[in-house]
Amino acid sequence: MRRLRAITPRVDLSVVLVNHNGAACLQQTLAALARNTATEEVECIVVDSGSSDGSWEGVEEAWPRARALRFEENVGFCVGCNRGAEAASGRLLAFVNFDGEVEPGWDAPLSGVLDDPSVS
Predict the structure, then answer these.
(1) DSSP letters along 39-51, please?
(2) From the CB of residue 25, how many other CB atoms can be counted at a distance below 10 Å?
(3) pLDDT tens, 1-12?
(4) Burial 78-91, CB ≥16 within 10 A → b, else e
(5) DSSP state of 37
(6) What is the DSSP letter of 25?
(7) Residues in CB range of 118: below 8 A, 6 or more apart
(8) For the segment 66-93, what is each residue's pLDDT rounded down to a tens digit?
(9) Is residue 51 over pLDDT 70?
């Protein structure tokens, strides 16, 4: 009997956001990412660091490419970045502040620079 391997979709870009009580701004950040990210094969990992405001709930509705990685306690920014990076599957990794707003095509220069064989 021949075994079939599951085909995992390729992810070119993983975006990691570390969130802590970002109910006032996280949805706008995700909406800007959804609207302004040029890379089609993208995932977003919202690392929730012990929020008490429910801000991690519904990130998939704000951007279907997003998913929450929830920690009950505040693990801090650096640990949150590391946990998000560990959960990421993209060829490229970008960290975006949970209260930031990216501009159109913000991600295009990332792949352009790294596709240049003279850059290491």
Answers:
(1) -SSEEEEEEEES-
(2) 16
(3) 555 555 556 899
(4) eebbebbeeebebe
(5) -
(6) T
(7) none
(8) 999 999 999 999 999 999 999 999 999 9
(9) yes
Judged on CB neighbours under 10 Å (0-12, 13-18, 19+), 56 is buried
User: How far is residue 20's CA from residue 120's CA, in Å, rounded to a whole number?
Assistant: 34
15 membership: H or E segment, kind and range? strand 13-19
Token readout for 60 is: 């998939």
State whether residue 92 is helix, strand or coil. strand
For residue 8, the number of C-alpha atoms closer than 13 Å in the C-beta half-sphere is 5
User: Tokens representing 13?
Assistant: 């870009």
49 is written with which tokens? 């660091």
Which secondary-structure segment (H or E) carries 18?
strand 13-19
